[in-house]
């Protein structure tokens, strides 16, 4: 990612349709033995009271409103573990976290060490298993936290994510990785893939990764369903890799035709994930493109990024309505997870 895109990772969209709902936000630093350091964690939930805070307002993106130090509303709510993309952070997916919390979920998101904003190590970031471990550890905490344990239904634990985070959600649900498939994708894509080009420039050799860890299962058996928005790392998988993926899965693809990002196209010949796991429910949202899920841009946002010569984060296909795309994604996940 270029420097301006990384700088924008803390920016969030407005979800006006949910503005009347109070969503609480609690931020924690949780210990993670597998990293040897704390993991920044955010929890959003149906709430009352607290202090309203607007997160992420800047000249490019709109902000979103949450209430810090708010009290969770009484009830029994499902948990949604939410994972961000490569170089992103939990705030980047704040519109989705808030949307699901307003629908009646306790949303637990983390900043994944080594693959988050300001902390992106190209070599360590591809240790994809640590991301699943991040969310399992966060779930361990929230199930025992007196502030949330009483309002959580432990039989309804779900996982969701975007891009690399989509893979993390599928990993938690039981999907195993295949390093050879990702290596083959980058060899075929070459410099045609910005991501693969950046890995090459950083000296990352996919063939050098620990195959035992890459191909192992990181299934969290508490996860009862998963949803992945434009998931990464799905190339070259086999039915054997999906043998433990035994929960309902929703795949959401952004864009169609030339607007579809090949690296996250689960129906592409190289990925073929939809054929490997035909039980998945597949939904396509268009017009849109991969970056449409990053937030709602202000009117001047696209021009600012063009001037900065950054990635076209705000340049959508003609006819794209980001607010409508966000609402559609929230609705699809709410239905899949049977939220109210």
In a few lines, what is going on in this structure?
The chain is of the alpha/beta class. Helix content is 28%, strand content 23%. The strands form two sheets. Strands 1, 2, 3, 4, 5, 6, 7, 10, 11, 12 and 13 form an eleven-stranded mixed sheet that branches.
Question: Any overview of this molecule?
Answer:
Helix 9 links the parallel strand 12 and strand 13. The N terminus is likely disordered. Helix 2 packs across helix 11. The longest helix is centred in the middle third of the chain and has 16 residues. The strands form 2 sheets. Strands 1, 2, 3, 4, 5, 6, 7, 10, 11, 12 and 13 form an 11-stranded mixed sheet that branches. Strands 8-9 form a two-stranded antiparallel sheet. 49% of the residues are buried. The radius of gyration is 19 Å and the shape is globular. The protein contains 11 helices and 13 strands. It is 28% helix and 23% strand. With 340 residues, the chain is an alpha/beta fold.
């Amino acid at each position: 990612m270029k420097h301006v895109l990384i700088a924008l990772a803390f920016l969030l969209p407005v979800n006006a349709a949910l503005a009347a709902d109070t969503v609480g936000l609690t931020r924690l630093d949780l210990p993670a033995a597998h990293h040897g350091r704390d993991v920044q964690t955010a929890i959003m939930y149906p709430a009352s009271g607290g202090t309203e805070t607007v997160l992420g307002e800047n000249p490019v993106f709109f902000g979103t409103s949450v209430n810090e130090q708010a009290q969770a509303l009484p009830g029994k709510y499902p948990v949604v573990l939410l994972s961000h993309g490569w170089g992103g952070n939990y705030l980047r997916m704040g519109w989705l976290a808030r949307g699901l919390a307003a629908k009646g979920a306790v949303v637990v998101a983390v900043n994944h060490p080594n693959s988050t904003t300001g902390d992106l190590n190209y070599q360590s970031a591809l240790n994809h298993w640590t991301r699943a471990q991040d969310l399992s550890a966060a779930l361990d905490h929230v199930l025992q936290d007196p502030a949330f344990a009483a309002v959580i239904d432990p039989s309804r634990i779900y996982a969701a994510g975007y891009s690399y985070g989509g893979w993390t959600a599928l990993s938690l649900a039981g999907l195993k990785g295949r390093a050879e498939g990702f290596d083959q994708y980058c060899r075929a894509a070459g410099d045609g893939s910005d991501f693969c080009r950046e890995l090459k420039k950083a000296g990352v050799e996919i063939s050098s990764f620990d195959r035992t860890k890459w191909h192992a299962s990181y299934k969290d058996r508490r996860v009862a369903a998963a949803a992945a928005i434009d998931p990464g790392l799905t190339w070259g998988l086999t039915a054997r890799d999906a043998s433990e993926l035994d929960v309902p899965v929703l795949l959401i693809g952004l864009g169609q035709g030339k607007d579809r990002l090949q690296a996250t196209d689960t129906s592409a010949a190289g990925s073929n994930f939809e054929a490997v796991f035909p039980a998945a429910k597949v939904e396509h949202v268009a017009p849109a493109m991969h970056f449409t899920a990053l937030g709602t841009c202000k009117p001047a946002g696209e021009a600012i990024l063009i001037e900065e010569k950054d990635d076209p984060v705000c340049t959508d296909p003609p006819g794209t309505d980001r607010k409508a795309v966000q609402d559609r994604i929230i609705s699809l996940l709410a239905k899949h997870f049977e939220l109210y």
